[in-house]
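A further point concerns the way the authors explain their paired sequence and structure data. Nothing conveys this as quickly as seeing an actual entry. An entry of this sort, consisting of the sequence and the corresponding backbone structure tokens, reads as follows:
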Amino acid sequence: MLIVERQDRVLSIVRQRKAVQLDDLARELEVSSSTIRRDLEVLEERGLVSRTHGGAVYSGAADDSVNNATLAQRMAEHVEQKQAIAHLAASMVKPYETVLFDGGSTVIYAARLITARPIQVVTNSVSIAGIFSDDEKVELVHVGGALYPRAGVTVGPIATGCLAELHADVLFFSLAGIYEDAGYNINLAMAQVEQVMMRQATRSVMLMDSSKFGRKSLTRVCGLDEVDQIVTDEGVPEVYRERLGQRLLVVG
């Protein structure tokens, strides 16, 4: 079991039971107590659990309110900022390009605004596939796999295997948060799909409204140095303007 998978499992257990003992977790996951202790330290740093003497209690209610939002709810948040980001992103697409999309809410806004034709579209998003499905000037590839209903995207080995055989000129994707020098998402399977997408695209463009900066989620997806451009709104903290320099595109 990978470290992130084990930590995902630890968090799931703590969330379900509200309070756990370290030794019980170690026995259940068949690892050492010191390993579980390190996992709990990581989860505590993310604000998801609070360690107690010999165990931990769940403290991720605030995180859940963000991470458990449905796609429809996320589409209704920070709409003005997302639309501004989407306009700039859409203008980056040129005719005859192959464009890869994940299923982030800001990415969906961008997909709706792309006017360049003809183009090829590759996506694991049900919503984005629907945007282009009847367009005669768009060649659409909808990636198969297991459906993650909260986000309306396909994930799992079928999705990652399919994507590994494809190439795109540009990837547009969005994550749950940016914290220090990395991007994070709420789900391991989604993160694995996005990691393959990044490898298969010549250029990667992250679309993130400023509310996501300084937010850490469950799974690390990538270092910010792996992303070619990040598009955000003017509410982005100054520290990220300095850290990212010209790779950060800020819309008014």
